[in-house]
Structure formats: structure tokens, C-alpha cells
Amino acid sequence: MDGTILPVTEIQRFCMHDGPGVRTVVFLKGCPLRCKWCHNPETQAHTQQILLNEKRCILCRACESICHTKAHKVDLSHLFFRSECDMCEECIRVCPTKALYPAMTYMSTDEILKTVERDRAFYGENGGLTLSGGEPLLHANGVYDLLSECKKKGIGTVIETCGYFRTGILEDIVNVTDLFLWDIKDTDRIRHKEYTGEDNEIIIKNLFAADRLGAKTRLRCILAEGVNTDARHYRAIADIASSLNFCEGVEIIPYHAYGGSKMLLLGKPDNGRSEWIPSEKTIAHAKSIIKENGINVL
What we know:
Elements: E1 5-15, E2 23-28, E3 50-52, H1 62-66, E4 72-74, E5 78-80, H2 90-94, E6 100-102, E7 105-108, H3 109-117, E8 128-132, H4 140-152, E9 156-161, H5 170-174, E10 179-183, H6 189-196, H7 201-212, E11 217-223, H8 231-243, E12 247-254, H9 259-265, H10 280-292
Parallel strand pairs: 2-8, 8-9, 9-10, 10-11, 11-12
Antiparallel strand pairs: 1-2, 1-7, 3-6, 4-5
């Protein structure tokens, strides 16, 4: 296996909403934030995790038989005592229905690039690779190596980032990235910390640092009804966008509750909040205020 190793949770092909054109999206594991509305909770932890899909489980007890730490107990249901698991992954190996499976697979940058190149015929002039997560820039060395090879091969490059990373990596990364999809989860620092675990100071600082280096950006703003659906927030988004030299505009991302089902696979409580799903009226209101302030809404 050649190239830098990266922790890949999933590769999605033929995507249309993660940058321009048709894209191959590679999700990397590890994130510094703990958003209460996280859509991909399996990408948060930096370490390996085992997911259990009970709908696939046929109660065959193969995992129970092989587990030397007694982390699995199977009877009329499948109980997985994760605190007892030492991550040997033998249960994954013997599971006949793939009810047990790893949250990530370690892949070399060469392996990832080969997967990306399979879709090259569909990229056209605008498509290519998007790195998402988690936070891709926690793995800056591997990301730089991968995107550098993409640029050599004429493959478009996009990074979706929460913006919370070490500023010093930006100069090299900007040079190999065509577009940053930059999450602005909230413009209120106190509320940002309450709902993500960190305030937004570093995120905004890095955004403007990237802009000074000539990075092209789109601001991606999640809306959670009753949390950050206020006019002050929308105007602050517009102010940020208008202060950037290379911002293409703003994308409004409605909260959805699908991340809750992934939490269950991780053995955690469902965090889906249906009351946070914004109405069409809320979304239209947000877009109108941002547009009124002279910002392109994508």
C-alpha cells in the first residue's frame, strides 16, 4: 500500500450537492466539534468504532462465540457491551450478514485516488473530488498529498470544512484546493459553543486567512428551527460573505434528523429532533434577508 494513510468512513459516488458538477465525496473520520445536530456522528471520534445494525442481525451468535471479552450477548436480541470491546474486530470478520461493521477503513492516498479516477469520465469540466467528514483538515498532510495528485491529473478539488483547524496548514492546502465549502454553523459565539462544543472565533479567523490567500469559498449555513433561525444571524452571515474577496455566495442547509439513526448504530441515544427541521417559510425568510444584503444565495 503506497501513499499517506487516511481514515475513510465512506465514499459516495455521483454526488451533485457537494461542490460543482458530478463529484466523488470521500468522508474522513475525526472532528473537533460535537454538533448537537450532527448529520454524520460516525465521523466524530478519531478512533475506530464498530457499528451494529440490528435489522441485519439474524441472532446467529457467531460474534458471541468468538468474542474473548464477552462484549456480545445474543438471545432474543443482540446486546453489544461496547465498554468491554477491545476492537479486535473478530466479530466483524465472522458476521455473515454484515450487521457488525467498522466505522472506518484505513486507505492510502493512492487507493483513494484510484477510486476517484473510476468516476473521471463523469466529471466533465467542473466535477471531481470532494473531501468531507468529520473535518478533513485534521489530516492535513494526507489531504495535501491526495489533492496534489488530483491537481496533477486535472481532477477538480473541493474541501468541506467546519473551519476549526490549525491555521498554519492553510497556505499549502489553498494551493491545491479549487473551492472550500465552509460551514458557518452559527454567528453567535455563545450559541455556537452551546450547540457545537466550541465557539466560532477560530472558524472565522481561518475563513478570513484563507480568503487572504485567494481561496474561493462558499459559506454553508445549517438552519435548525428555533436554534439559529433569527434575522440577526442571517444578517451576520451576509456581513461575513460581503467582507470576503473570493466568496461565491451562501448555501442554506436545512437540518434533518437522519443523523439520529446513525447514533443508534453507534449504540448511542437517537439525537434526531424533528422540531428542528425548518419550514419552507423559515428557509425562504433566511434566503430573502441574505439576498437583500446583496449576497448570492446558491
